[in-house]
């Protein structure tokens, strides 16, 4: 029996495949590198939803744009309730309030995830929500609504690349959670809320700041080698390095690094982060020989979202905004099996005393 389900195959999926040994992520039949930064979030969503959501491919940009408008009508009145909540708590509140009675759950869930991420970040700062713009793409509009400021082409491309990069990733904890809820026939919106609840934990998507905290602590390029060396000598982990499944480079780190490169003029932290990465790889090679430790998705996610002006506590909501499209696809795929996910546990508690 495997405790924790490591190595257990719990579902068959045509959505994505993670090959950790080869450093490969396949999404809807394509390598991530063919999609991120090349195909829009809306179009990759349509590719994932093909055969699962009727008409998803006919005009995906219009579908999500219309869904943002509809979601805003449901969610904007809830803005006063966001005061005092962190952005991820606010996003949970907003998504949980969507009505099962809405006629189009798949697109509503994804449109609402963009609206909720933007609203929840603003709400945590005591700011009023910004309405969606039907002419913009999903990434550009989400960032514009979050910042209430125009978004440049490179910035829109940066967030679009990020949303595609995180759209799906095998049977990770939140996707599995979404499938378990879907398997009870609870519905797509409940599956997406459940996915967010699993994602918000610090062991999954809920620890947004550590990479930036590390960069802040290191402070200067000259200090990097000594800082990193001392941290490893103390037995600490370098944030944004290593991965349980990818035993070579995390392909998501590569595509995000390319997106970050386009934003160099926006943030001094980018060149600094690149210098720290190069030094860290040298230090890890020396201190942990043969471990194959490399940059993971968290490293360039932090640098990219920071350069886009997203506050640290907004990183997890944006992760959820991208992953929502994957959760929806998995929920439908699972629902179609008609089978509830119901594993076993091994009882290790006390047994009732034998009757005399
Ligand atoms: N910095 C320094 N050493 C590391 C790091 C790191 N980031 N990651 C692993 N190691 C070392 C371990 O100390 C260990 O060395 P040892 O054999 O001398 O004891 C060896 O590499 C193997 O460590 P494991 O814990 O077996 O590696 P595992 O694959 O289980 O860990 C994990 C993966 C948890 C991601 C780890 O690399 C880590 O803690 N990284 C830092 C935190 C981080 O970046 N998290 C985000 C991951 S991306 C994501 O989850 C979406």
What does this entry look like structurally?
It contains 15 helices and 3 strands. The model has no long low-confidence stretch (mean pLDDT 95). The protein is globular and about 60 Å long. The chain is mainly α and 356 residues long. Helix 9 crosses helix 15 (315-337) and helix 12 runs parallel beside helix 14 (297-307). 54% of the residues lie in helices and 3% in strands. The two termini are 34 Å apart. Strands 1-2-3 form a 3-stranded antiparallel sheet. The chain has 2 domains: 13-202 and 312-335, Citrate Synthase, domain 1 (Orthogonal Bundle), CATH 1.10.580.10; 208-307, Cytochrome P450-Terp, domain 2 (Cytochrome p450-Terp, domain 2, Orthogonal Bundle), CATH 1.10.230. Residues 232, 237-244, 288, 291, 293, 296-298 line the site of acetyl coenzyme *A.
